[in-house]
Amino acid sequence: LVVGGTRGLGRALVRLLSKEGREVSVLGKRAPEASEKLDGVKHWSVDLLDSASLSRALDEVQKRAPVSELALLQRFKGAEDWSAELDTSVTATKRIIESLSPSMPEGGSIVLVGSIIAELVADSTPVGYHVAKAALHHMARFYAAKLGPRGVRVNAVSAATFLKDESKDFYLKNKELLDLYRRMIPLGRMGTADEIAEAAAFLLGPRSSFITGQVLTVDGGLTIQSQEALARKLVPVETKK
Ligand SMILES: NC(=O)c1ccc[n+]([C@@H]2O[C@H](COP(=O)([O-])OP(=O)(O)OC[C@H]3O[C@@H](n4cnc5c(N)ncnc54)[C@H](OP(=O)(O)O)[C@@H]3O)[C@@H](O)[C@H]2O)c1
Predict the structure, then answer these.
(1) Which ligand 1 atom sits nearest the alpha carbon of residue 162?
(2) Which of 45, 49, 124, 218 has its Cβ near the most Cβ atoms within 10 Å?
(3) How open is the CA angle 155-71-98, to the nearest 5 degrees?
(4) pLDDT digit string, tens, across residues 213-239
(5) CA angle (56 as vertex; 54, 61 as ends), nearest 5
(6) What is the pLDDT of residue 238?
(7) Alpha-carbon gap, residue 176 to 156, rounded angstroms
(8) Spacing, Cα 235 to ligand 1 middle (Å)
């Protein structure tokens, strides 16, 4: 089950899982276009903020097939709104995990998508997003400890800004911005939704069978640098005496 699988990173993950021949259920707010339909993929249109509709959708998903792998990457969109941000990201995640995990089989896996903003401050981004992402990283640890004895793993992916279908043109047309990312990121470029989806798929699948409670940062090395080193890289200053 991919929650938030109708756009961006979620859609990239759904495409990847469908290509691997998996049966995928998707929750998103809007109904997908006919052209977006993929083999083995079934959509449910539901507003995560409507708890009764969410429970109904989860029941139907379970009837289709018991959920063994669960990825949560919904993102609140709209004007700055503390409650809606936390309800969409944190409360819906808790509800979905607590509703589905009791029937997940041994070997089941859950992946939450967080952000480097869980640890760092970007003052142009609302405080609710920071708090929600920090909560998700810690929820991965909490549920890993709680569900581990049943053989269910829980991890998080911490992403930096990536290129997705919806934003690619904006970034690729803006040479100055692209050049800034090239200079900031040790790997010299922005990551893509497909690359973040690969990390999520790794944590979801059996190849990560002994990894749980971890936050995997997928940022091309951006956050391993000290702020001072980063600033010096962007604004070279003569330091020889
Ligand atoms: N974009 C980045 O550069 C970036 C960087 C770091 C971390 N992240 C994280 O990566 C994840 C994916 O980001 P993204 O940019 O790919 O997201 P996105 O394109 O905005 O897609 C968000 C998804 O969440 C669903 N959604 C939002 N509110 C909902 C609601 N109330 N009910 C049901 N579905 C709802 C959307 O459904 P609809 O399609 O129906 O609207 C959509 O499928 C998020 O957790 C985000 O915080 C993103």
Answers:
(1) 3
(2) 218
(3) 80
(4) 999 999 999 999 999 999 998 987 777
(5) 90
(6) 78
(7) 31
(8) 33
Does ligand 1 have an atom closer than 6 angstroms to the CB of 162?
A: yes
CB 89 within 8 A of CB 125: no
> Looking at residue 105, what DSSP letter applies?
P
Identify the burial level of 75 via C-beta atoms within 10 angstroms of its C-beta, where 0-12 means exposed, 13-18 middle and 19 or more buried.
middle
168 lines ligand 1 (CB under 6 A): no
Residue in 197, 184, 171 with CA at minimum distance from that of residue 223: 184
Closest ligand 1 atom to residue 116 Cα is 6
**Residue 11 Cβ contacting ligand 1 at under 6 Å:** no
- For the beta carbon of residue 76, count every other beta carbon within 10 angstroms: 19
For residue range 184-215, list pLDDT tens digits in order: 999 999 999 999 999 999 999 999 999 999 99
Average pLDDT value for the chain: 95
**How would residue 241 be classed by pLDDT, with cut points 50, 70 and 90?**
low
Model pTM above 0.90: yes
CA dist 98 → 61, 186, 216 (Å): 15, 39, 23
Cβ of 5: how many Cβ atoms within 10 Å? Answer: 27
- Which long-range CB contacts under 8 A does 193-196 form with residues at least 24 apart? 193/8, 193/9, 193/11, 193/12, 193/162, 193/163, 193/164, 193/165, 194/12, 194/16, 195/162, 196/9, 196/12, 196/113, 196/157, 196/159, 196/162
Q: Ligand 1 in contact with 47 (CB < 6 A)?
A: yes
Residues in the chain: 241
